[in-house]
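This protein record is not my work; I was only asked to verify it. Where you disagree with what is written, explain briefly why. This is what I was given:
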Amino acid sequence: MEQRNNLVLQGTETFSRGQLDNVALDNGSVVLDSVAGRYLQYGSYTTPEFAMPAFCNLNVSWNAHAPQNTMVEVRCRVYAGGSWTGWMSFGKWAPDYPRASISTHSDDGLIFLMGDTVTVALPGGGTGVQLQVNLSTNDDKVTPALRLLAAAVRPLAWDKQGGHPINRRLYLPEYCLSAHDPSFGRDMDLPLVMAALMNRWGEDILPEEVAYVMEDKTTGSTSNGAFAAAAAGCCGFPCWQAWMDLQDLREQIHDGCSVAVRIERRIRGQRDPIGVWMGLRGFGHDDAVLADYVLLNDPTADSDGAVNCTMAVTDFARYFTGRAIALRPKPRDTEANRPRRVSCDFVYSAEDDCWYLAQKGQRQLLPAEFSGWAACSPHDGVAHATTAHRTFRRAVSAPSGGWSGHGPAASASRPSRPPQAGGAAFTSWTIPAPCSLQRCACLRLRRPRCRHRKQTKAPRLLSPERQHSQELFGINHQHGRNILWQRRSSLWAASTAPADATSPRTWRAHWASSSTTRN
C-alpha cells in the first residue's frame, strides 16, 4: 500500500496474494496460463478484499501490455451499507480496441459507476474495495500481461496534510491546447499533460497519439483518467490515479516525479468554474513576500511559452480537487506497445495536383471511408525540445486518394500556404536524416540526385515542382524537411532520407498504425 487511501499493487509477491483462475505470474506480471505451449483463451485475477477509510469516490487504474488480439477488462466491487455490491466493469480495454466506459449502478441506485469514478452516496460511504481483472486472447501464441493495479479513494473525513515546504523545480515540456488537434476540444488538456509527463523522461510522444489511445468512445472525450493511466502504461511507464493532499504532492516532487493534478478554475468563455488538468513541476519560496508557491503547466494558456505559471500555495490548496495521476520512470526491461511504422515514399503528381504515398513504386491510396486530414511541419530552423513543439500546417485528402494543400477555406487558386484548422497548429515527429550534404535537407521529389557542393554557388531558378512544394507547405527557403502526415486513425512522420548514387531523392514517410478512427 503506497499511501493510506491509495492502493498500488505490482510485483510477484503482491500479486501472489490474490486468487488466480487460469492465470499465472510471469516476471512480476499476471498472464494467461498455458498448456502445451498454448495460452488459454480466458483467465481472471481477483485481489483480496481491502479495508479502506470511509470514502465517497473510488478510482481504479491499471497498466497492462495488450498485444493485438488480446483484451483486458477491469472490474471492482464496493463494501457499503453492510454488504458487497455486484461487480462493476470499467469497460474492455486494449490499445487497438475502441475503448468505451460503462455506466452502471447498484440495485438501490446509491452506488454508481460513471466514466472512471465510482460514487458512493450511502451515509457512511464505502469501507471496502475488491478488484478483478479478466484477461482474454484470440491468439493462443500471445497473452496480455497485467503489470500494475491500483485503487484510490477520497475519504469522507479527509484530514489533509501540508507537509514540509520544499524548494525544487523539475523540467516539464510546455504544450497548450491552441497548438494541437482542435477536434478533441477542451478535453485535450489531459492528453497534453500526460504527453508532457512521459516526454520528460525522453519518450517524445505526441499528445495526439495519447489522445487516440485514451479516447472514450462512449463520451467521445479524452477525460477518462483510467484510460489515461492505461495509455501511459502502454508506453511502459508505471502510472496510476490517486487522491493526494499537499504533503503527497511534495513527496512526489521530492522524489523527482512530476504529477498531473486537477484544478477547479475559470476558463475564458465559461461562466462556471470547471476542472482542468495541469502538470505539477515543483514548489518554490519567494523571499520577498515570505510566501510559498506552486509551479504548474497550464495547457489552457494561449501559447506554449505561456504554459508555465505559478500559484500561491494557499490558492492552490483552495482550488486543487485532490485528484492526481502519478507517473514513474520507465523500467528498462518493460515491454511496450509502440506504433508500427512502415517506410514509404511521398511523391507529387502534377497531373492530379496532389501528393501520394507510395511503397515499392506502388501508390498507396487512402481508403474511401477515410475522413481525416493531414498536417505537415516544414523545417523552421529551430531546435525544438520535443517533437510535439513543432508547428503544423494543414492538407486535406484529395478525391483521387492522395493529399492536397487546398483546405476547405482555400480559394480556387493555389494558396501561398495551406489553411489551418481553427487557427490551430500541429507538431511532427522529428527524424533528421540529411541528404548527401551534411546541412542540406532538400525536398525529396522525384528528380535527379542532389548535386550540392560545399562551396557557395550562385542561386538557381527553382523547378516548377520545387516552387509548388514551397507554395504548398509555406516554405520560404530552398531547403525544407520533417513533415508529419496525420489522419484520424493513423500518423505519418515524413523525413528526408539519405541519397545515394543510384536512387532518386524521395520523401521517406513512416506510418504509425492505430485502429481507432475519429469521425
About this structure: Residues 406-458, 468-519 have pLDDT under 50 and may be disordered. The helical segments are 12-15, 189-199, 207-214, 225-234, 246-254, 313-319, 464-473. The CA atoms of residues 356 and 402 lie 5 Å apart. The chain is about 10% helix and 35% strand.
